[in-house]
Amino acid sequence: MIQIGNLQLNGTPLFLAPMEDVTDSAFRLICKKLGADVVISEFASSEALIRDVKQTQEKLKFDDKERPFGIQIFGNQADSMCEAARIAEKYKPDFIDINWGCPVKKVAGKGSGSGMLQNIPLLIHITRQVVNTTKIPVTVKTRLGWDETNKPIIDLAEQLQDIGVQAISIHGRTRSMMYKGEADWTLIGKIKENPRITIPVIGNGDITHADAALSAKQHYHVDGIMIGRGAIGNPWIFAASKLLLEKNIISPPPTIHERLSICKQHFELCIKNKGEHYGILIMRKHYKPYFKDLINFKETRIKLLTSNSLDEIRTIFQDIEKQYAT
User: Fold this and answer.
1) Strands 7-9 and 2-4, how do they pair?
2) Distance separating alpha carbons of residues 303 and 324, to the nearest angstrom
3) If you count Cβ atoms within 10 Å of the first and of the last residue's Cβ in the chain, which end, N or C, has fewer?
4) 308 and 235 share a domain?
5) pLDDT single digits (tens) 122-163
């Protein structure tokens, strides 16, 4: 069992990593249904929140079925981050997560996200201020460092714990790696070995199948495992990982009909939450991974990606059901 504030999680909890334009409420609900223990919002800009940008405020909304749920914020100014934390707290999440890990240029290039790994004193200052501002637990998601010559994560983990951060999620890449190469879990393991570290350490990076989750636990002894891109089109990874971690049972891959069923549920949740126009657009990024490796599927996929009609898309789903009925 691990503890984040008053939140207690049994076993080796599985976290859905926050991913911009992916982990909206519809996808989070699907992942919860299929075994995710904890889900986190898409990251919300502190500057946008304090300026009442409606699109950013929408990211903070969640269904109680998603609990335990965290709201993730990012920024590079202490005042803005503290005000954003106060705004997020009003939505009553279980914790607030600070993003010190996003590598994309529009975030890191402005000193937010993993860009703050180049200024550890400021990172600590802002984090301390946020911790002191809110009454709910504060966690941090970050990376090993900025590049191969700058990996402060071992000392940083201690510093974050000392100022009151209650859990840390670590992606096993530097900012310069972006999402290329292989994640290096070695330093994550060393943090877990550090007798000074008492807060939960959650490992992240390249968990694309259940075997990887089991290996991460066995070799690096992390308290929890965070799954990001490996869950896109494959939310069953949570149930499969849980079964392997807890009972050493290997799950069969989902059938075509199971994949279609979950895709349809995801689609309907998207339409319900976002409306017809935006729901259809948002789902387009999910079709290819949901139906990966299906034979003779290209023409059907093109139809899904180009249709703007609810009825037409639902008819395409029916056609898929018939086409692959065995």
Assistant:
1) antiparallel
2) 17
3) C
4) no
5) 999 999 999 999 999 999 999 999 999 999 999 999 999 999
Mean pLDDT, residues 96-118 taken together: 96
> Do residue 166 and residue 191 come from a single domain?
yes
The CATH number covering residue 184 comes to 3.20.20.70
Token pair, residue 171, equals: 């992606």
The dihedrals phi and psi of 128, each to the nearest 5 degrees, come to -60, -45
Q: Which domain holds residue 63?
A: 2-247
Q: To the nearest whole number, what is the mean pLDDT of the chain? A: 96
Taking 90 as the threshold, does the pLDDT of residue 28 lie above it? Answer: yes
Q: Looking at the structure, do residues 304 and 265 belong to the same domain, yes or no?
A: yes
Domain boundary among 215, 247, 279: 247
Distance in angstroms (rounded) separating the CA atoms of residues 144 and 129: 23
Section 38-48 average pLDDT: 97
Give me the long-range contacts of 185-189 (CB less than 8 A, separation at least 24). Answer: 185/216, 185/219, 185/220, 187/144, 187/151, 187/153, 187/154, 188/153, 188/220, 188/222, 189/219, 189/220, 189/221, 189/222
Active site residues: 102
Q: What is the value of pTM for the model shown?
A: 0.96
Domain count along the chain = 2
Rounded average pLDDT over 210-232: 97
- d(CA 234, CA 228) in angstroms, rounded, equals 10
Out of 247, 273, 295, a domain closes at 247
Cis peptide before 68 (omega within 30 of 0): yes
CATH of the domain at 309: 1.10.1200.80
- Report pLDDT for 113: 96
Give the model confidence (pLDDT) of 51-83 as tens digits: 999 999 999 999 999 999 999 999 999 999 999
